[in-house]
Design goal:
The structure is a homodimer of 375-residue chains.
Chain A lengths: L15 H7 L8 H7 L5 E3 L20 H14 L8 E5 L1 H13 L8 E5 L6 H7 L6 E6 L9 E6 L18 E6 L18 E5 H4 L8 E5 L2 H15 L4 H20 L4 H21 L4 E2 L6 E3 L4 E3 L5 E6 L6 H6 L6 E2 L9 E5 L4 H12 L3
Parallel strand pairs in A: 3-4, 3-5, 5-6, 6-7
Antiparallel strand pairs in A: 2-8, 7-8, 9-12, 10-11, 12-14, 13-14
Chain lengths: 375, 375
């Protein structure tokens, strides 16, 4: 199971796959919101539509549905979380595929050594797995960006807010010949204050985290340089000959529903999301406060331009630390039937674990109940 | 542009991408059929559906929609073109992704040399590009299966009916340590007589060629061995964290529409497809017959168990040969504004070109008109 999939609750007699699902960070928390929307975000597609491979033959990304691209531009402008002007939109089968497309686009095709790929500890553990699983001669995972001392070219992954710990990040290397890719999957108002539009060379987003629609498998990159965008599209062409048009059209409808809900002032998705995340974090902090074993990161209060008020971060994952003499936090929690992902997977100490905050209400409630019982 | 995209007709002033589109083998020919179906193959998806990453947590392929898998089984049983009993269905973002998943699954993870990947000439040219574009240490393209003399392990791609030439194929090597993957994208009744259910270890299919829905990006593999299926699913998990659920549900509806149309005896898709392919091949053969420059492959008449009659092949591509002193068939046709893909891309003589037979009516008509004018 991909590392993106971890949470709590072990069921008796569950199969391995079922256990994995229970550990997952599946963003099903937002399902309740979309149920309330009823038909307003429903899409109907007749059998004769979207048959061609091609969506926009004049575009660098020839498989990009123009309606989807338009809604991406409009939503970013509305939320103020990313600069889209003059950027190419490259659509992918989730931001996971776009991460690989970026590695392909930014690595020279004929270097004698593979390009180094790094990220500051603690880093999203799937980066390592995905970079290396095909033993590519183009790029190779080199681990922690802080300890990367080579003078050779590199790609630094900057995840902000960071997975697993939720902090806002900047590049930590800044050497000549270095490239950065900004994974901004969680830079949305339900998770963190929107302080300014992100403005980087390659920025990755995904509908899995922005609206909670993981099963549609749609991500997008905003790319400044035309040649990089062209090579990213080439990767996706060779890898999957483009991206489902149906999924792109469905996401267009969903992004439009989010934006229009805010514009007309009812069913505001980001308000709903922030309220829910804030409630969950309050509950978690309350339990942690009453138990000397654990600690959680503290986030500063900042002015959120989207909400127009001061607010703090409520990350999609809680980066929980076991204090004192406990060395293996994952094992401790497992013995209390709370499945988590241990720190070593993120290049960190096993005193840490990552816990998803995005599961369905009943699963989250069970997690809080079990954690409380450890007092 | 992927090598799957080649056909005729160059427009004056067209951009590079537009020209590529005109050269494409986009299967838009079937669009007219689906338009006639009207709402019968329409699917509606509410905003709250398909949000989770997971589809079937107990399945080796945990992102497989059960409804899609069921329709795959039913359609193969109805058509009689593949044995599905006891097989795992692995869904992919088109058969292109499944081809890569098969290479990953069949290559040892820790061999000193990459696994050799071969296919008999003339082979589908994308195999070479896709196998090598990431310079994987797991597998490497070694070209023509006929000339593969090494005693090392290998994967042989067997495309049947073959792209580009339309012939039914068998494996040509059969050495110990060898694995075969059968790409059966064109083993459907509109293209070729269905003589028996295919019964191989790994069989690839795609909705692009079976029903013409290329833009949905759905393919499936039928896999005998559980461990191979598990590794193929692992590839797709690492590459794209699964496959769009919306697309799977839409394909389920389309496959059901095809099957039920035949069962109730109206709007029979495969009858429609065979009639159209047969008419197009008749027109092409007529033009070629009247012009000594060209020749086409001849196919035997065989008993088709699906239609219950004797019939011949009408492949999705025409493998046209320039006879006599003409060395570069692609260049000759280009000078008459017919864009094709030359033989060398398929490991063959440049006297050959591949021409898609699946384009829209008006494009095909233009092709026939221009070819006729060469007399």
């Amino acid at each position: 199971m991909n590392d993106d999939f971890y949470l709590l609750e072990e069921r008796t007699g569950a199969t391995r796959s079922e256990t994995e699902k229970c550990k997952s960070g599946d963003p099903t928390m937002f399902e309740a919101f979309w149920r309330e929307m009823g038909d307003r975000s429903t899409i109907a597609i007749p059998g004769w539509q979207t048959m061609s491979y091609f969506s926009d033959v004049g575009n660098v990304c020839w498989f990009l549905e123009p309606e989807f691209a338009e809604e991406v531009h409009k939503l970013h402008k509305f939320v103020g979380n990313a600069e889209t002007k003059g950027r190419h939109v490259v659509v992918g089968n989730g931001s996971t595929q776009l991460f690989q497309a970026a590695l392909y686009a930014l690595s020279p095709p004929d270097a004698s050594e593979p390009m180094s790929v790094v990220s500051a500890v603690p880093y999203y553990s799937s980066y390592a797995l995905i970079t290396d699983f095909l033993k590519s001669g183009l790029y190779k995972w080199r681990g922690d960006a802080y300890t990367f001392k080579s003078d050779t070219p590199y790609i630094e992954m900057v995840t902000s807010p960071n997975n697993p710990d939720g902090f806002i990040r900047q590049s930590v290397i800044n050497k000549e010949g270095g490239k950065t890719v900004h994974d901004l999957a969680y830079y949305w108002p339900q998770y963190t204050p929107i302080t300014e539009p992100a403005d980087y060379d390659v920025m990755l987003f995904t509908v899995s985290k922005s609206t909670g629609h993981a099963g549609i498998r749609i991500g997008w990159a905003l790319v400044k340089d035309s040649e990089v965008a062209r090579k990213m599209a080439k990767f996706i062409e060779l890898n999957t000959i483009g991206v489902s048009k149906d999924s792109q059209l469905r996401v267009a409808k969903i992004l439009r529903t989010v934006r229009e809900g805010h514009e007309i002032g009812m069913d505001k998705f980001f308000d709903y999301g922030r309220r829910l995340m804030s409630e969950r974090w309050d509950k978690l902090r309350e339990v942690v406060k009453s138990n000397a074993i654990f600690s959680l990161p503290e986030f500063p209060s900042e002015h959120c331009k989207f909400f127009g008020d001061m607010c703090t971060s409520h990350p999609a994952f809680a980066w929980l630390k076991c204090e004192g003499e406990i060395e293996d936090c994952e094992a401790l929690l497992k013995s209390h039937k709370i499945l988590t992902r241990g720190g070593k997977h993120f290049g960190e100490d096993p005193k840490y674990v990552r816990i998803s905050m995005l599961d369905r209400h009943e699963v989250f409630a069970l997690f809080i109940e079990r954690l409380s019982a450890m007092n």
